[in-house]
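question for whoever is on the cluster today: can someone run the full assembly for these? two chains, 427 residues total. i dont have access anymore since they changed the login thing
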Amino acid sequence: MNPAKEHDEINLADTNATDIQKKKIISPPMEFLIRIFATIFVIWLLLSFVVGIFVCHTDACSPMVKDGDLCVTWKIGTPSSGDLMIYRHNGQTKFGRVVATAGDKVEIRDNVVWVNGFVAVQQPLGHLPDDIPAVRFPYTVPDEGVFVLCDNSASMDDSRIYGAVSFADSRGKVVFLVRRRGI
Amino acid sequence: MKNAVFQQRPDSTPSDKLWKNLNGLHDGFLLMVLTAVVLISGYCLYDNWYILSHASDANLLQYKPDSSQQTGPSPIADGMVGWLTLDGTNIDFPVMQGESNLTFLNKNPYGEFSLSGSIFLDSRNTPDFTDTYSLIYGHHMEYGKMFGALDAYLDKAYADSHRNGVILIGRDGRERRHITVFAVLRVAARDNTVFDVEQPLPARDYIISHAEFLLGEPGEHWIVLYTCDGEDDTMRIMVVCNIE
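^ ran it for u. tokens below:
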């Protein structure tokens, strides 16, 4: 091929390449914005549907989970018996152990909780005060709900007072916790 | 031609450098988060591996009473009352007995702390297995470890082909008795009927009426193998054997 012609063709190719480059570039501020929004979106997705991060400020589940513990919850799946669950109730974040699931019959005899005719919790629990409106026992756990009890027998802040916690109020079961106090 | 979507423009202004630094910071932030996730996951994997690898010690077998590989005095703790084997399964363990049913729940046969504990005889039973109803507990673990091996007995064909076993009685295995599986049950975790070793008759009726299947007739003396816990917190597995 004619060297001059070859040179022209190469120049033309370069010019086209530069034009294409200039059209495809995203400016750094735009790139930064996209990164930030993408990160926020992914974090929002994870924290809404997959994991939860909470700090415990209640002694309801002491000594399993104590005041100040950083808890990571797993939100995928439904809560099942034995799980230590974080949930929302009346605008507050609460901790409780699931002892009964949909369809189970819960009774309280002599301050001991029975589920489906068997003792659910070995130690007797605090006495239900007469003046707090408690749930009617025997209580059948509704669908899409779980009955939770505080691990700490001194605490009454659980389903004995306000009934089953719905799946919608659940914030997942605690799978990991980090403690720095009182080691 | 390079993929030019995020390519640096040929002429960098100070403003461009600022944005480049910010993007770099963002990269650094993501890297830190991912590193933290990897480290936590690594810890979780290590913890799982640790539990499983400590669930049963292959070295224990050399201290089995009729083993030909005996190497000096046995380091197994004083509470050993026998040795249980189910042919063709992972179950080949010393049977311990403590002052209470909590003693060997989290102690291995050497007496050391262990999450998976030991296979142990109910503290209310006589240690020579002469009771009508001898109840042996073990943790249910993944991959068939400890009494996780009992899961397979829920399948009748498996149970039928793995019916035989041996119980060696005493620390020295002085007596050898043949055992035969005759019933498999799933029981509610909180059901205490089966724990009443002092009242074998209600337990016997319960076993017969609640069995998933019966492979034979109940005899006069049984060994009951019971898993302490499991993935499904509400149901436990019981394998009931006749002792000859």
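summary bc i know u wont read the tokens: The first helix of chain B runs from residue 14 to 53. The interface with chain A takes residues 1, 4-7, 9, 16, 19-20, 22-23, 26, 29-30, 40, 44, 188-192, 233-234 of chain B (CB under 8 Å).
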